[in-house]
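quick one: magnesium ion bound model?
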Amino acid sequence: MKIEIPREVERFGPIVFHGVQKVYELDAGLRNAKNDKDDNPIMKRIAYDTQHEIQKQMAIVVPIRNEKIKLIEGVLSGIPHHCLIIIVSNSPRYPMDRYKLEKDAIEHMEHFMDRDFLIVHQKDPKLGEACAAAGYTHLLDKNGVVKDGKAEGMILSKMLAYICGKKYIGFIDSDNYFPGAVMEYVHEYGAGFTMSNSDYTMVRISWHSKPKVVESNLFFAKRGRASEHTNRILNRLISSFTGYGTETIKTGNAGEHAMTMDLAMKLDYSSGYSIEPYHYINVLEKFGGIIANPSEDVMNQQVEFFQIESRNPHLHEVKGDQHVKDMSKAAMECIYNSPICPDALKENIMEDLVTRKILPKGEKIGNTLRYYPALENFDLRKFKEVLKNQEYAGLFKAKLPEFKETKVSKPIRDTKLAKESVLPEKGKLEMK
Ligand code: GDD
Ligand code: MG
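yep, here:
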């Protein structure tokens, strides 16, 4: 892959937000002296061999709820061979066992592909028991199984990837129509990790386009309907603190994203479809210097965000207007209710929601999301121990470090420190 270096960079304490980078060649050859000599200072060449080394250390997670089996098969065929595929399904098991159908189809593919898959059902009671053993009961419902939600499935997959000993974890939705796009996303994840200087790195995909049929013609829309609004509000949040307008953030809702496991273990998460915008918010809450600086290592190494514009169009299942509105409201809610959200921005969010008819005038935004504390403060050796007889236990390759008990078991937003954060005064740095 050949990719331009970031043109814009926004810095916020130890957090580096790189502007969107364009891909110029999907395949830029092998690592060898001749190819390397051609390197250009404003282009980064990521050789096939380099991608391969990263892929061997990467888990790709495919969350599923009620998708067509043919679609899922296409997605799986696009994931490079050396990545470990983790499938977390929350498809219904009654009256028809859809998970059984998915598992049969995936195991059939497994024979032909000759590779390992780790397939679980989000509601498997054994997984609930494993979370409870680790002390991570936050993820469980009153029946002791993992709660519904895309984020909840993703958090579970992070615990699994960790005990499998993976260094990187990437996410690809299971309703993608183009296997070629899936493969490209994984290469872009690899490109981001290669360009990074930090163990705390996240790579987010900005789609080149989303094809739609408009008046019998194909129209290639630039952004999804929710992300345009999320991006604007996230950029305003940064501007409220720096005093400079910015448009750097273009991937507020990016479902396709990857991160180092080191970062994955340190972040708090929010529920459902708000998880992706909350990544930005939580990194600002934890490492932006507004609330606290809990990790010296992060302060020294920085947190790097890469945003890479893919070349393939992104075509996925259409799930309706209400679904998009709910997703957009969830994004706004996690920003609004953050202890780092200044009052002026809260007003902007409310105006935006009313204008888009997502919230009736005068109604409060509410506090409907759940927040999950960072996994690093829970004993995942106990999680692993409970799962040691499961059919996929052979994939648990990590040599887990000694667990150091800490008292931090809350998300940062619920701590005393969060209530003491100093925010920009209303009216002083308001961005309109
Ligand atoms: N395991 C699991 N559990 N998977 C789920 C659940 C759940 O409760 N709910 C949804 N999924 C799976 C879907 O099957 C799909 O593969 C993926 O999560 C994304 O869900 P969609 O319902 O297709 O979401 P979307 O396409 O509207 O939005 C996607 O793109 C947005 C913008 O990039 C999501 O990835 C959003 O999170 C993202 O913000
Ligand atoms: Mg989708």
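The first strand starts at residue 2 and ends at 4.
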